[in-house]
Amino acid sequence: MMAGWTRHWGDPHIEESGGKKIFKLRGNFSSADVVGTIEPVCLAKDAGTISLDFGIKENGIKSAIVVQFFSSDVYEFGVCESATCFEVARIELPDSDNPEEEFDLEIPYDLSGWDAAATCGDQPGVRVRPAIFVTSPFSDEQGPGSLTIIDLDYFCVDGQVVTAVKDPAAQPIIGLYPNPTTGALTLDWAGADLRDGLIQLSGPLGQTLRSWSLPGGATQMEVQVDDLPAGIYFVKLISEGRLVKVMKVVKQ
Questions:
Q1: Among 3.40.50.2300, 2.60.40.1180, 2.60.40.1930, 2.110.10.10, what is the CATH number of 168-251?
Q2: How far apart are CA 128 and CA 116, in angstroms?
Q3: Least crowded by CB within 10 Å, which of 64, 74, 119, 165?
Q4: What does pTM read for this prediction?
């Protein structure tokens, strides 16, 4: 699978389209191809937004795209119990007979009321992985019209990542600018204690494209991304192997 992502259920495929890699997901009531991240992340029990782009290759009857957060180590399709699973959205797919048409979704979520089993130690967060799939009310036995196929080419969770800082008011401000950018990106971490620091630049589906080590004693670093195609990318800041922050950046 693509770096950072894996199958949680079914048999999703990766294909090349327009120079980028996409997930091809199939699903109905009987089963589905479910993808998500390999590693969990600690999200604050707060509000956030999920963004995703997809194309419909085969539209089943009353089909829907489903986004979940799950906190267990093993995912089971068709089982979403409140202690280990939070259904963010179940959105009916639009009618479309054009396989080249692309759809963008912005989905708000709020984890404040989720009494999840897997917490983040002494931090007020929950340890989760996303799960994305398509489904319909019809099973394999009900024949044509039950199966839906989509191409998923972008997925982003825009929420607060819980760090190991115990006093939230004392958390340092970490900046990334300019954003959007045409070539240069400056990361500013003044006041943050980042040991064995690393910057990773990832594509829209989590694949790591390149990485840079943070220079010792510095509080700022500039990197060049002018050779990358226009689009949406993610900058991950890592300290001592721990994910500190994820920031979305637009390359023009």
A1: 2.60.40.1930
A2: 9
A3: 74
A4: 0.67
